[in-house]
Amino acid sequence: MRVLVTGGAGFIGSNLVHALLPEFDVGVIDDLSSGSVENLHPAAWFRELDILDEGVGEAVTEFAPDFVVHLAAQASVAASLIDPERDWAVNAEGTRRIAAVARACGARRMLSASSAAVYGDPVQLPLPESARKAPLSPYGESKLTAEELLAAELAASDVDFASLRFANVYGPGQDSQGEGGVVAVFCATLVSGRVPSIFGTGAQTRDFIYVGDVVGAIMSALMTEAPLHDAGEGGPAFNISTGEQTTIETLATMLRPVAGFSGPYEHGPARKGDIENSALDPRKARDTFGWDARVPLQTGLQMTYRWFQTRG
Ligand SMILES: NC(=O)c1ccc[n+]([C@@H]2O[C@H](COP(=O)([O-])OP(=O)(O)OC[C@H]3O[C@@H](n4cnc5c(N)ncnc54)[C@H](O)[C@@H]3O)[C@@H](O)[C@H]2O)c1
Predict the structure, then answer these.
(1) Residue 179 above 80 pLDDT?
(2) Which of 93, 169, 177, 214 maximizes ligand 1 atoms within 8 Å of its Cβ, making it the mutation to test the pocket?
């Protein structure tokens, strides 16, 4: 079985490629814009390509995947505010093109990474897939458009498909540079002996999901016998999340024993445009393809911190 992973040199993608390789032939397309060569598994077929490049169709046809996992994206909310055109091109148009290529090469199923950002300010917590979509950033908008274009491209084809809306993913391999995930930023800061800064009061909540659980969700969604494109309420979309809210203050407290840090955290001003609370209801994924998040936050934080330590 052959699985193509776009964005396979990135955080989630490289974790997925490592998990897939013992069982599958794995191909990676990545332009290395935010991913890195060190993340690339040497046993994976690899083409350094922008998903918007002309050559992508030929490369994917050469690899001839049975399954496509589309993770390549402009994944930064901040960058989407600076350059919304590029964000739209990569995330929306890029997804449409990968879907067209998946169809042309006769893939069986395509999974595409979406985000909690498609919902915007939550109207209820945890949010089901059918909740109102009101993105607050160009990134959220491009991800929502990507979901629509995926469906438009594949609805009348033999390719089954779904968009997986990831909550706040954390774990080994995450980049702490730029806006990074808060867990990565806190771990990297603590490892280097500095004091992390909490934006705002710290009372804001997020739904933190360990990258190994996200990889498990992708693998379950790939392998299920159940068709995903017509899986009922909320359309061909699945939250990949824990459904639980954790405040940033709690996260910081949980990291203390892990990092051996007893001093006070710093506090900075709240970030403009950040939503206050977030949690996505994961029950549809469990009911449809039998997946549940398994890694408790404390355990995930230990594994993540250890990874940042070994990295120096
Ligand atoms: N990390 C999270 O918390 C989170 C949450 C919700 C959704 N997502 C989505 O999950 C996916 C993976 O995210 P990640 O955290 O691993 O990000 P990442 O930046 O580590 O990985 C993205 C990968 O895509 C590659 N890429 C970017 N633009 C490309 C292009 N035009 N052509 C080819 N490759 C390109 C990058 O080089 C990188 O390797 C993205 O679609 C992201 O939007 C992530």
Answers:
(1) no
(2) 169
Q: Which domain holds residue 93?
A: 2-168+209-240
Whether residue 284 lies inside any domain: the answer is no
Average pLDDT over residues 131-150: 97
Q: What is the CATH number of the domain that holds 272?
A: 3.90.25.10
Same domain, 193 and 302: yes
Same domain, 177 and 123: no
Q: How far is the CA of 73 from the centre of ligand 1 (A)?
A: 4
Q: What CATH number is associated with residue 22?
A: 3.40.50.720
* Ligand 1 and 91: CB distance under 6 A: no
pLDDT tens column, 120-138 = 999 899 999 999 999 999 9
Placement of tokens 């013992």 in the chain: 22
Neighbours of 299 (CB within 10 A): 12
- pTM, to two decimals: 0.98
Residue 52, in any domain of the structure: yes
Q: Percent of the chain having pLDDT more than 90? A: 93
* The total number of structural domains that make up the chain: 2
Whether ligand 1 lies within 6 angstroms of the CB of 8 is answered as no
Pocket test for ligand 1, best of 4, 5, 11, 176 (most atoms within 8 A of CB): 11
Same domain for 193 and 219, yes or no, is no
Query: Which among 119, 139, 265, 305 is annotated as catalytic?
Result: 139
